[in-house]
């Protein structure tokens, strides 16, 4: 299926590894020009160089801390009005209410919740002026399967689900679509390493749907489809990819 994304420009946050890097690879293969944002300058530039060589697209690396208002503003100004914004950055820690103190909770939300909201606000304004655009929020299925041992993440994801639905319900008036993806367990490098070295994680994998976590490419393919005109009547919608765990 031709997604007709060639020539589009996409901004992807949290792009140096995991799901974000896989979305970058998928969109580059579709012919998108990319802006990649994350804190790791070396990993970003390595990925950018690879994608330029493999796909002949323009790729700009932006080493930024999206918790910092100045970095966020600098990124938004540098990118302008992309055709696609993929909000993906986040590192909310596990723990119950007693374990996650106020400072840790706020620090995590500055990136995963307010980072999404603040960058969307800046990019949305530019998209609105141009009359088109797509925002894809990579959220997480803990927003549906609420976990007391991941309370900060469950609450963050639930908030971003509401944000996506609220913004997306009216964004069509400005020519903009806003959609979300809720991944369940995904075989990123961190999770794969834990499964290889930690017996508890190895046992968990056996009981996952299909006996495995999702491949990052399975999340990336959905992000590309939702960003394309093949999904042109979709907004305010969140697609869950967790093998049926949330059903």
From TrEMBL:
Q: Which residues cross the membrane?
A: none
Q: Name one GO molecular function term.
A: oxidoreductase activity
**Alphabetical UniProt keywords:** NAD, Oxidoreductase
tRNA-binding among keywords? no
The record's annotation in InterPro entries points to: NAD(P)-bd_dom_sf, SDR_DHRS6-like, SDR_fam
Q: Does the keyword 4Fe-4S apply?
A: no
What sections of the sequence does the record tag as coiled-coil?
A: none
Task: Name the family the entry cites.
Answer: Belongs to the short-chain dehydrogenases/reductases (SDR) family.
Q: What is this protein called?
A: SDR family oxidoreductase
Source taxonomy:
Bacteria, Bacillati, Actinomycetota, Actinomycetes, Mycobacteriales
């Amino acid at each position: 299926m031709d997604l007709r994304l060639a020539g589009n420009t996409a901004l992807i946050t949290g792009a140096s590894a995991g799901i974000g890097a896989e979305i970058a690879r998928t969109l580059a293969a579709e012919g998108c020009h990319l802006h990649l944002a994350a804190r790791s300058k070396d990993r970003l530039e390595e990925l950018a160089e690879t994608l330029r060589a493999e796909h002949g697209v323009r790729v700009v690396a932006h080493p930024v801390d999206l918790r910092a208002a100045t970095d966020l503003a600098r990124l938004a100004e540098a990118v302008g009005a992309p055709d696609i914004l993929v909000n993906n950055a986040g590192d909310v820690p596990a723990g119950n209410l007693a374990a996650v103190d106020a400072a840790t909770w706020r620090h995590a939300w500055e990136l995963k919740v307010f980072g999404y909201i603040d960058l969307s606000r800046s990019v949305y304004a530019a998209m609105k002026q141009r009359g088109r655009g797509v925002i894809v929020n990579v959220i997480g299925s803990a927003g549906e399967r609420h976990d007391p041992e991941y309370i900060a993440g469950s609450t963050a994801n639930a908030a971003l689900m509401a944000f996506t639905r609220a913004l997306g319900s009216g964004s069509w008036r400005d020519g903009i679509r806003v959609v979300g993806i809720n991944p369940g367990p995904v075989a990123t490098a961190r999770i794969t390493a834990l499964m290889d070295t930690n017996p508890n994680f190895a046992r968990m994998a056996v009981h996952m749907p299909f006996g495995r976590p999702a491949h990052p490419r399975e999340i990336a393919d959905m992000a590309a489809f939702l960003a394309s005109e093949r999904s042109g009547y979709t907004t305010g919608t969140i697609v869950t990819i967790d093998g049926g765990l949330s059903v």
